[in-house]
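Input (Peptidoglycan bridge formation glycyltransferase FemA/FemB family protein):
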Amino acid sequence: MIMIADDFVFDEHPKPQEIEIFLEGHPQNNLLQHTCWSQVKENWAMKQVVVRRGGTIRAYAMILIRSLPLGLKLFYIPHGPIVNYQDEALIRFFFTKLKKLARRSHAVTIRFDPNLIDRTYPYAKRNEERGDHQQGNVIQLLSTLKCKHKGYTLYLKEATQPRFQAVMLQKNMSWEALNAKTRRSIRHAEKCGVMIHEGEDQLNHFAEVMKLTEHRKKIHLRSAEYFKRLMSLYGERAVLMTASLNLKQRHREITELLRELQEKSHELNKNEKEQIVNLNREQEFLEEKNAGRRFRSDAVRSSGFDSG
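Output:
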């Protein structure tokens, strides 16, 4: 169905290719509004709608639809709709049509969380006082359309999607772009035997860590099948990276280093004495972690999980 009002056109059957082009060029583009995400949320149906002006897409929403008792529905637009929220005429037209679509589909509500940045700041300054919120005018406009803002929530249980996101721009991910402290930490980790793995072959190990986290935190997380589906659907755009440390091997290396240093104890310089202190500290840490790992593995097995 296509609805027309003034120079806006509401289209319920846009072509997938034109949606992709629109998303790739939009600053609010995010993975939760791509078709792939609807395939991840396999218990939901999906509908895509757009608003055109002069034949060009100006607004888009991928709506996830969940069936409720009595033939009712729930509409959810994760990190959307994707639209210029400063264009009041466009917003009023789009949300009017979305509400009409919801009523026609027997949806009791439309839940949405636009991918709008409220404030940005370096992680090191996360506890500092901030100024006013940047999206107050958007909230005011949406409230005139009878949308209810849930507030600036702080906890995961208070929102469908987390409001806080740690972001690192791709241009800052090269070795040269990292600050000196981060580079030193990476070199130190490598020197201590930490191995970095990239690829889907580590997925089962990753899922095992998730199970251990579930048990430790007494929470429910995603299954291995969920992450496999993500890797399959997003292909080259999905990256799985893990880090591992062979505790027994590293313990042997430290023991050998300590033996060598202790053999020349009468000749030790200041740096070597500090090295002994650090190695002893690391050895104690590894022994504690290794004991804890054995305890957690036993706990996981007794809970019915396979720890490998």
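Confidence is low (pLDDT under 50) at residues 295-308.
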